[in-house]
Structures
1.
Amino acid sequence: MNQDAHSIGLYLHIPFCSRLCHYCDFVKTARFAADDPASYVRMLKAYADAWLPVLGLKLRTVFLGGGTPSLLDEAYGPLMESLRSWLLPEAEITMEANPEHVTPERVKIWADLGINRLSLGVQSFQARGLKFLTREHSPERARDAAQLARSLIPNVNLDLIYGWQGQELSDWEADLHAATALDIQHLSLYTLTYEGRTPLARMHRRGVVDALTDERLESMYLMACDTLRAKGFEHEEVSNWHKPGFASVHNSIYWHAGSYIGLGNGAHSFLAEHGGPFGTRWSQDPNLRLMQDGQSQLVTRASLDDLLRMPGVHVETERGASEWLLETVSSGLRTGKGINVNAICARTGYNFRPRPSLDQALRQGLMQVDAAGILTLREEEWYRETGWALEVSLSFVAP
Ligand code: SF4
């Protein structure tokens, strides 16, 4: 077994927000005062104390995501203390933060707790963009937050969103320049999506807001590729760029079918080496009450199978080669590392017989397969991975 098989990522979901952004489809609540976030964090600690000894695996990463983890600071102390003995020495410990919560005092507390990577939800440096996205901070606050974070935290990521109504290419160019003018190590650039249940999607369906055209969005993606390459960033995944040496360890676990567990309501987990050749995937129900009800039963759960039978844990039962294949191909094709055709054939028992569309793409140089069997898409095509994933998956055929 390699080191990756002995260590996992840990995602901790903090579902509280001070108010709700209208585009957001994450599991979250604005009732954070009523729901008592400090007692929620104590509950996460109880779950971590039950899960980690049963798994017996070291933590390569910890990711506090949400929601808005930056609403809290010292409340994480006992939880982080509990995790300490499970951490690998070089573990990446990330926390998501909203710029309006970043103060010198809080940054110091987070750094003292061991947070060594801060991911700031900037979303835009344009006042018009922030207003459209219903964010609480100003462009100036976002800049100050990035600088404050870097004063004590070695690795800072900024999240930006492109595709908001009225956004011109010049606005996007200005955002890219504003971000790269700061001393940051990583950038995550996401297209605005109109997710089914969000207020923004409802407004879109009623014709109150307009989405940008696919052509405009693709131009913005290509602009980011050119601009960030010129600024010394490496392109890791369709939405993620980093300075040399600062690839996101936690996200790479997701992209390359590594093992992680998620604790907190709505969190997802995957153990690659459990339950057969295609691993075990499960999620915790978004209803917070189910987790709270289950807390008293944690002490009686002595094995992984016991924990997977906890209230609100939904294990994916119909999991076979085709599910694993589509997941592996979809996530790998969006990255510079691509997919390992030989490893996929070995794991599934399938053969790789490129369909005519793939043969043509190989001839045109849109994709390539090297001598070691690594199949990669050209960077411009990562953006169209959804179309390629099916074609590539269907090129793996049962003997
Ligand atoms: S985008 Fe972040 S701050 Fe806004 S509602 Fe979603 S989780 Fe909360």
2.
Amino acid sequence: MTRLHLGYTGAPLDKADHMRRDAAAIQAARMHPSARFLILDDLKPLMAEGGTDLFWARRSEIPTGLAIFLGLNADGEPRFAVDGKPDDDLPARATDARAAGALLADGRAAIIAQARSVLDWHRRHGFCANCGAPTEVQKAGYSRLCGSCGAEHFPRVDPVVIMLAEKDGLALVGRGPRFPAGFFSALAGFVEPGESLEEAVARELHEEAGIRVHGVRYGASQPWPFPSSLMMGAFATAEGFELALDESEIAEARWVSREEVRAALAGEADWKAPPPLAIAHWLLATWAGRP
Ligand SMILES: [Zn+2]
């Protein structure tokens, strides 16, 4: 089976965690002539004109703003992300991070996910959740330290399960109330404290669609940087076909065959499947590709 590339995965950078605690090493990396910077303008990454690659700015071209260390490329050259307003003269365009991710069908999109999630976290965590005092950036952007109570805060990752329930050659897809008309996807929901991935899958399917499942199988995962989700894709076996939808979450749901899924993925069905950037596409394609 060909393994499809999962959007926002496969970063081509060595994250060089050992450098993050070494302020002098980070400063030297920042000043190095080979250092390059991915500017995010209001969380939109700059793409080179034409949209076929990220735009890597030189240090002399970057705006004032928080810079976080992304890592080292294959040649050992440092790469950073900067939160700021770029100069209008740069041959680049600020691009919505979803659109940019879709344009880069390889590991470069993972750099966008890393940069966007971490910079967005800094924007929203300037104050200590423990005591309310201002916090300061540490470890090249991978933690914030409260100067008052000493609490250390780390960029968050929010686990989400996304799953295909299947039974007798049919899989369940649903349309959320805010989805465009005709667009169906795998069901999904946040993992709650105190439950396993398998339990979250079973609970969400029961809450949203009224079905019971067993045999939950993990498939694959992807980061989804809006703002900081980790999508964990799974399959599960349903015990029956009868649905009881929670209409605040699912406006419409249907059981579809592998043939119907293949047609939808090819754009030849009366419903639209998720685009290749999303793990729901991978779940559907993987399921439909099986004999
Ligand atoms: Zn504090």
3.
Amino acid sequence: MHVPVLLKEVISYLDPQPNENFVDGAFGEGGHSLAILENTSPAGKILGIETDKEMCARWLARKFQIPKSPSTPSSGPRGKFQRVILVNDNFVNLKKVVKEKKFGPISGVLLDLGISSWHLEESQKGFSFLRNEFLMMRLDGDKSKLTAASIINHWPAAELERIFREYGEERFASKMAAAICSLRNRKPIETTWQLAEIIKRILPPAYEGGRIHPATRVFLALRIAVNRELENLERTLPQILEVLNKGGKICVITFNSLEDRIVKNFFKEQAREGRSKILTPKPVTPGLVEIKNNPRSRSAKLRAAAKV
Ligand SMILES: C[S@@+](CC[C@H](N)C(=O)[O-])C[C@H]1O[C@@H](n2cnc3c(N)ncnc32)[C@H](O)[C@@H]1O
């Protein structure tokens, strides 16, 4: 199971109360949502949005495994699952989904960005260089759209260099783009291991002092490009402020500096214009115990604001 990151902190900023409704825009396995639901019984609801249809199906499978009982308390496991409306969509359509579901009033919105442990370990979508899989990297699983393999095999060197530099903050972007373009002419690069091998071969042995796998930054860059992660975040934040109730909270957990900058700048701009109040002057990060128990939390940053 995916371990929800900064859970206590999210609950403290969202401050869910009985009967309040929340939107979880990157629903995943619903870890944060279930904790919110603990506090919102008997009638508080969650509108969950999740772009990965397999992830949605996994939630439904869990829901139907819970045994039916004659009295289902709203705070019991089944009661909590019943108070979730899960929609398979991209959070960039948040306002439309809220309207279609006639969902409200909304006391808070959470975006826990990125991918879950299941995506890395089991989804077979090519997110991890530790597994040999087709280089797809699409969260929505639609192979007919842009994939990481099509970027790697068809984009011009200058574009590859740009995304490696801009999205991956990779120092060796130009060297990597050149190597990929020369090798792909001999044989298409279609798997995670093919790409990871190429990268490993051209980087200096002491890359980043051995702290991260040499392919980490390129894989992140590809994922961001394929799923338009930065553009979607920029388009979603204003929609969140629109759908929130006055006084409603917005919490965003980011996992890289590009996402964090977008959230920080948006919160600052809205605060300057008197539309929201920043609740986290500095981003909240996990403590040593959380990082030890869940190493994937180490790059997480939480920022929160309230609609004025
Ligand atoms: C870090 S996980 C969320 C984990 C969740 N908070 C939990 O505790 O289980 C992020 C989830 O958001 C989904 N996601 C990422 N981008 C999305 C988008 N643009 N729209 C909707 N869902 C998205 C991913 O598929 C993934 O399941």
